[in-house]
């Protein structure tokens, strides 16, 4: 599923447990985009945060891992806590990226049951003027 807001383009996979899109995953991604926007005035473009949390509204009871930066946010539901974040990013690049990519089998001990990527959109010129005027 793909959708846009005024600031981000969201791309999400279907949940492998339910076969549907996950509203809890979308809520978490929106909360992360809001948090990154709040942090933007006091951080740099290199700012990054990683973490995990229970998806309270997920009917399957998933734990989601995330990695967020000002330009991109990725959320992985049901990923193994022991898998390196870089390997999850490689897997997401393979799924969401425009380039053909492969990974050796067994790189991840458990594949995420659902994933979401939020990519920041370039601001429109009118948004830049408003941001500069309020700064």
Summary of the model, kept short:
The protein is α+β, with helices and mostly antiparallel strands and 135 residues long. It has one domain. Helices cover 29% and strands 24% of the residues.
Question: Main attributes?
Answer:
135 residues, alpha+beta, six-stranded antiparallel sheet, 6 strands, globular
Q: What's the overall average pLDDT, rounded?
A: 85
Largest sheet: 6 strands, antiparallel
Spatial separation of the terminal alpha carbons: 35 Å
Structural class: alpha+beta
Number of strands: 6
Describe this structure in words.
This protein is α+β, with helices and mostly antiparallel strands and 135 residues long. It has one domain (2-134). The protein contains 3 helices and 6 strands. The protein has helices at residues 23-39, 85-96, 125-134, and strands at residues 2-4, 8-12, 49-54, 63-68, 72-77, 114-120. The chain has a 6-stranded antiparallel sheet, with helices on both faces. A hairpin with an 8-residue loop joins strand 3 and strand 4 (63-68). The longest helix has 17 residues, at 23-39. The radius of gyration is 16 Å and the shape is globular. The model has no long low-confidence stretch (mean pLDDT 85).
How is this fold's topology laid out?
Blueprint: E1 2-4, E2 8-12, H1 23-39, E3 49-54, E4 63-68, E5 72-77, H2 85-96, E6 114-120, H3 125-134
Antiparallel strand pairs: 1-2, 2-6, 3-4, 4-5, 5-6
């Amino acid at each position: 599923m793909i959708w846009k807001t005024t600031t981000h383009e969201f791309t999400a996979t279907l949940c492998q447990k339910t076969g549907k899109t996950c509203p809890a995953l979308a809520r978490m991604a929106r909360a992360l985009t809001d948090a990154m926007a709040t942090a933007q005035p006091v951080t740099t473009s290199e700012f990054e945060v990683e973490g995990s949390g229970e998806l309270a509204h997920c009917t399957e009871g998933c734990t989601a891992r995330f990695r967020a930066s000002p330009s991109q946010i990725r959320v992985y539901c049901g990923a193994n806590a022991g898998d390196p974040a870089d390997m999850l990013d490689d897997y997401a690049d393979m799924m969401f990226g425009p380039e053909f990519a492969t990974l050796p089998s067994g790189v991840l001990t458990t594949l995420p049951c659902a994933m979401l990527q939020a990519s920041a959109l370039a601001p429109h010129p009118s948004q830049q003027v408003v941001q500069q005027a309020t700064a």
